[in-house]
Input
Amino acid sequence: MDAGTRQAKKIIRDNPVRSLAKAVLLLEALADEREATPRRLSELLHEPRTTVYRLLTGLQALDMVEAGSGSGTYRLGWRLLRLGSAVIERLDERQAALPVMERIHERTGETVFLCVRRGDEAVCIERLDGLRVQSIALRLGGSLPLHVGAGPRALLAWESREEWDAYVARRPLEPMTEHTPTTREELFEELERCLELGYAVSDEDVTLGIASLGTPVFDYTGHIRAAISIGGMRQFLLEEIRDEAVQLLVDGAREVSASLGFDARAASLAVG
Output
């Protein structure tokens, strides 16, 4: 145990709960202010300046607070970055999505996929095989280009329009079937349709006779993190269970997004 840790523990030991609460409030104040003097922190926390100095001393010893760029100011320290990174790493999309995927699989009996973007490809990081038909176009660990399939297209649709243009400029839109979009206009029309519906539809553009539906999963940054999709025989998926499948996907993606820290209400307010 280093001297800084011992000093911080002594501060907390004097009155553990109150000291911890004050320390957390001080860190939150610094997060809001970016940098602040002890006087400013004293005003924000309604605490005596001596208390603020004592907290700053303990937190600085633990590298949770450091000297700021301005004279006499303080800011958050590097150790908080490591702690924050540990929280972010815990937000594992596969772990969060698996219970939702199992629920969709149980209700529909169809193949359920979880894809993430890697470059210009959608990589399947989880897959639950269907009871009726098992698609071989996208195996676990396999990938598809972003312009084909419901999951891959969802990963592209919820990117910026600039990224749509960049993707088309980088990647030839090679066909997999006669239904694959192969021009900029065709692809953008499909992407716009995704945004309009709130989900992606793949109608025989990967494999003839097979269709899929896909929904975006967002993370705490508000950026698309993954896509959950369901695939099966075209007639059954698009004509018999489409409404139920879409609802399961939309609700499931919303649930997974929330577990990854996405605030749907804040995002809608920002858009509005």
In short: Strands lie at 65-67, 74-76, 111-118, 121-128, 143-145, 200-203, 210-218, 224-233. The mean pLDDT is 88. Residues 16-33 form the longest helix (18 residues). The two ends are 51 Å apart (CA to CA).
